[in-house]
Design a protein that fits this description.
With about 300 residues, this protein is an alpha/beta fold. It has one domain (about 5-310). The chain has helices at about 5-10, 15-20, 30-40, 45-55, 60-75, 85-95, 115-130, 160-165, 170-175, 185-200, 250-260, 300-310, and strands spanning about 135, 135-140, 155, 210-215, 225-230, 235-240, 265-270, 275-280, 285-290. It has a seven-stranded mixed beta sheet, with helices on both faces. It has a two-stranded antiparallel sheet with strand order 1-3. Helix 3 crosses helix 8 (about 160-165), helix 5 (about 60-75) packs across helix 6 (about 85-95) and helix 6 packs across helix 7 (about 115-130). The chain is globular and about 60 Å long.
Length: about 300
């Protein structure tokens, strides 16, 4: 369930109207940020959301999370053809919850004895059945998509609320003002990816929505990485989930320097703003900063943003 559906389910008509307004009006920022943090904490499983709406208690949700995890773990174990392979797949899947929104290598994952071939097969089975999603990078800055499956993928799990519960971090998250400042940005990246997947159709294998990936520099030893890249019309748009001034977005600068357009998006715990900036090499570009609760509305806001600054 996306944040928009979460607001619909809660019957919060005023907040839903604020969320759907394009361009977003910043007077609704505090209200929606608080609700988005609740959504991130609880997750988007309908049964869990309905229970929270009634009880307003995270602790009372534990049996529902455990029920969902038991279901998922049972499905994962069922993918094996032998008892040994079932155990391996289940172990890999359970351990994947601690690596949500993290890039992983298959060899030795979960167990030093697991080779890249057998671990890779387990991950691909889990991916094909929708029990997790392997988000692969591209080194391109232009469409059409050219995805490099030879590089380490990032793990995306079905629901951020389940990730929080499994890792026991709900209490630590509950008092945070900026999710991108905690747990090495794992939760902020995971919830944004969840929003992007649901609103693009990528969460549904049958859908044919816009793809969502991330970008890495083509040089093997480079650490440059942009959190997400999305397709918008004929452009590949970089999206970073970070706080701070534009000058600190070094990986974003490297993407913009290679791109054939001057547009970029930053999601942060702050209001909507548009500004002109320069990369470290001096290229002028336009940065749209959106509150990260608008991750599911990026494309709608890109319409006005690109018209406003003038498509070049």
């Amino acid at each position: 369930m996306s944040f928009e559906r979460f607001l619909e389910r809660a019957g919060d008509k005023k907040s839903l109207e604020l969320y759907q307004e394009v361009p977003f009006h910043n007077y609704g920022y505090d209200r929606l940020l608080k609700l988005f943090h609740t959504y991130c904490l609880v997750g988007g499983i309908p049964e869990v959301v309905d229970s929270f709406a009634r009880e307003r208690s995270i602790r009372m949700l534990a049996p529902l999370y455990e029920k969902q995890l038991d279901l998922l773990f049972g499905m994962a174990a069922g993918l094996g053809f032998t008892g040994k392979s079932s155990e391996r797949i289940l172990q890999i899947y359970q351990d994947a919850f601690s690596f949500a929104a993290t890039r992983v290598t298959f060899k030795g994952f979960s167990n030093p004895a697991f080779g890249s071939r057998e671990a890779g097969k387990a991950f691909r089975l889990l991916n094909d059945k929708g029990l997790l999603y392997l988000l692969y990078p591209t080194t391109q800055t232009t469409l059409p998509w050219k995805i490099d499956e030879g590089r380490a993928p990032r793990i995306q799990l079905p629901d951020t609320g389940l990730v929080n519960h499994f890792n026991g971090i709900q209490e630590a998250l509950s008092g945070q003002d900026d999710l991108s400042a905690v747990f090495n940005r794992q939760i902020s990246l995971h919830i944004v990816a969840q929003e992007l997947f649901y609103t693009s159709g990528q969460a549904d294998k049958r859908a044919s929505g816009q793809e969502v990936h991330f970008w890495v520099r083509d040089k093997t030893q480079s650490s440059a990485e942009v959190d997400f890249v999305i397709g918008y019309e004929d452009l590949m748009i970089p999206v970073e989930v970070k706080k701070g001034e534009p000058g600190r977005l070094r990986s974003l600068h490297q993407f913009v320097d290679k791109a054939q357009h001057p547009f970029a998006v930053r999601l942060h715990a702050g209001p909507l703003m548009v500004r002109e900036a320069k990369t470290l090499s001096g290229k002028r570009y336009y940065l749209m900063s959106l509150p990260y609760f608008l991750g599911g509305k990026i494309r709608e806001h890109l319409d006005g943003f690109i018209k406003f600054v003038g498509k070049e």
